Amino acid sequence: MPGVIPLIAQAIWYWNDILFSAIRLRRGTKLPPGYMGLPFLGETLTFLLYFKILRRPDDFINSKKRRYGDGVGMFRSHLFGSPTIITCAPGSNKFILQNCKDFHIRWPVPELIGLKSVVNVEGKQHERLRRFIINAVNQRNSLQKIAAAVQPPIVAALHSWAEKGIINALQEIKKEENIEMKKNMKGDYITMEEISKLKYTANVIEETIRMANVSPMVHRVATKDIYYKGLIPLLAQAIWYWNDILFSAIHLWRGTKLPPGYMGLPFFGETLTFLLYFKILRRPDDFIISKKRRYGDGVGMFRSHLFGSPTIITCAPGSNKFILQNCKDFHIRWPVPELIGLKSVVNVEGKQHERLRSFIINAVNQPNSLQKIAAAVQPPIVAALHSWAEKGIINALQETKKVTFENICKMFVSMDPQPLTESIDKRKLTKIFKEELAKRKLIHKKNEISSDESCDIMDGLMRLKDEEGKQLGDDEVVDNIVSLVLAGYVSTSLAIMWALYFISKSPHVFQKLKSPAKSGAFQGFGGGPRICAGNMLARLQLSVMLHHLSLKYK
């Protein structure tokens, strides 16, 4: 009897691994290295520890790497009740992110963003929304307007910070290009053409986004068995309550192979470990690192089980690119629709996605749009810098949130953001934007505004039509506005905050930024057909902030 207890304990400890390994053994397939945790719980608690408590998500990945090695950059795990594969190599990440056909967005994204958001919809609906967003915020013309609009708040904020205290180490940016540019400036604010010439500042921005890790992970659910470098990165079947033994047996029977990893406990998988790293420890990278340590990088993929589903985690550029560029096989599912909206450009697919994406790109990501945006954002940024300088010591995160949210609200919905700034969430924004949409429809019905006049992104979405001349429904308009506002506000404010932090704390690092980043090694805005449609808008606001900060403040 004394010898039985250790065996039982060991069986419980490796329950998920044994279960899914047996399934894969039957199929003749191989899982990535990793550990799938206890029955039900998996690695969920460890995940939450790193992510929510320690606030060091990178350590979750690093711990995997130390234990299993880099290998293919994939590790098996079990998170939130599902077997999961964690990928952390550029190759495997690229593989997944570019493979939208086989890897879809599922829970929790729809719950967090919205079922009809561009983040969650697929096919033509996603293409339409994404095109709209890119045209609205990521084209040169849109960025010109945004650059002009965001600079006054940024400049004012920088001025306010300067008065609150000392912000260190902007000399490299200043010496490199901004002082010389100021000699040729015709006014107080820079244009989109001038922003495009800030090559050194652009490298600072890319490194800031990389180091800040604003979005530490991307979640995809495969629609079928996908092979990557001899491994199956994600299992498409909705097997919510089985882990390593179960999935290993299934793939053994199929003659296929899973990436290495650990799929955790039945139902829970590695969900608790995942939440531990992401929500408690705040160190999501450690969740991936731990898999790499244990299983090696390999192809940058690991099997796991998260939120009730078998999961493949990819963390290599190659695998990430493969998934992101393969929208046909990789779809967006829960939780994206719930988070962003079912009808958002993030969530829709096919022609609907193409139409929305084209509109967004034309609105914010084209040269003409960027010119107008560059002119519009600078006064608020300049005013914010001035205000910060007068205050002395500031809360960088809160102050950057205010100025970026002000710019986003004015650009997208022409609204004063002050009542919303203190507490922002999807439900509150949805309610407010539904009320705003109802007001605009009433005004349009009374012919107080020309139907051909384009005022802001919301008006553009209201007039957007498909091939049959059908306009977007109210839910589609609201879901896309909510997803655009949340995405533009959160990512930009965090990037600016981290830029200020890294510039202040690590001035010596920026000497390394003169060398461009290795192609494919970093994907700060995702990849493939669903790459962030407004990425130029985020870069533009950060460029404006760094430009004025480096020239006028210490």
TrEMBL record:
The chain crosses the membrane at residues 481-503. The keyword Membrane applies. GO terms for biological process: brassinosteroid biosynthetic process; brassinosteroid homeostasis; sterol metabolic process. It comes from the Eukaryota. The keyword Membrane applies. Keywords: Heme, Iron, Membrane, Metal-binding, Monooxygenase, Oxidoreductase, Transmembrane, Transmembrane helix. One of its GO terms (molecular function) is monooxygenase activity. Belongs to the cytochrome P450 family. PANTHER family: CYTOCHROME P450 26 (PTHR24286), CYTOCHROME P450 FAMILY PROTEIN, EXPRESSED (PTHR24286:SF12). This is Cytochrome P450. It comes from Dioscorea zingiberensis. The lineage of its organism: Eukaryota, Viridiplantae, Streptophyta, Embryophyta, Tracheophyta.
